[in-house]
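To start, an entry.
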Amino acid sequence: MRLFRSAPLCLAAALFATAAVAAEPPPGLKAQLEKVVADGAPGVTALAFKDGKLLYRLDVGDIAPDTQLPIASASKWMTATLVMTVVDEGKLSLDQPIGERLPEFTGEAGKVTLRQLMSFTAGQGSLEGFFDLRQDPHITLAESARQVAARPLTDPPGTAFRYGGPSLQVAGALVEQATGKTWAELFQERIAGPLGMTRTYWGNPLRPGLKPDEVKNPNLQAGVYTTADDYGRFITMLAGRGESNGKRIISETAFDAMETLQTAKATMAYKPPGATSLDGYALGNWCETVEAGGRCGMVSSPGAFGTYPWIDRDNGVYGVFFLKDRLPNVVADIQAARRLILAAEGVGTSK
């Protein structure tokens, strides 16, 4: 039986998948991706880019070019980007206490900032409880935030990093309040539409049968369903520091904030399975390597289902591994495949 197949490949996806291929895949990359499949993934797509151009694409195993999958925590990068478009407008501030806008957050909880929400240092718990993932998708983001506010803090704000808590739902409530638009409307208007991401929508990874228009409380840490090509469009914009094909999505100032280490003074109290080797977090993405001034060199946002987007900021090389399997099963294989890609472009292989 063939898994994860979707509608016939549309012309736009076909063009993106084949246009501007500039290089042959490095020796050993296909074999390494075959190991990902042998270790449990039905199939895997690898896209590799340099300086805004597609180098090559490999589809290995049972995966179609237009397969649409839930990408779990690879969603976080999209969430942070959309939030930063509102910060760019001056409608939100990274360091304003959230209690000034959401009065249900009081005491220490009211002193939490948007920066802490997006770096998982807000003291609101971790992924372990699945609190936001188990919320009703039909409530609003405002109600989702009220439910978060009713929970006690697990840590004083800013003191501990606990990955995957419900804090991005609170960030989403702030965005909707500040703009007067729903999350889905704003995402389409500011990111998906301008980038031509026609096969991407927000939902809940635990409720895959929901239609997008049913979802009023999208899960903002893990709720995106997309294709390899659509994520390739998104990460090309990220690699361009907010600009792609002449379209600016967020400012370079916003990117500087998104790719600056935020956890240097926080205890790394909880990291998820598959990411235990990663030691720093920025805003909606991991700082795999940290340079002077807290600047991130290698950034990524791997998801629990295996999709692993990454950017080597110093060398202009970036890519997406797109698949559905448990991240701990495949992370070593994926990182080995990334080292092959980087080595082929003359980049050291320690990352």
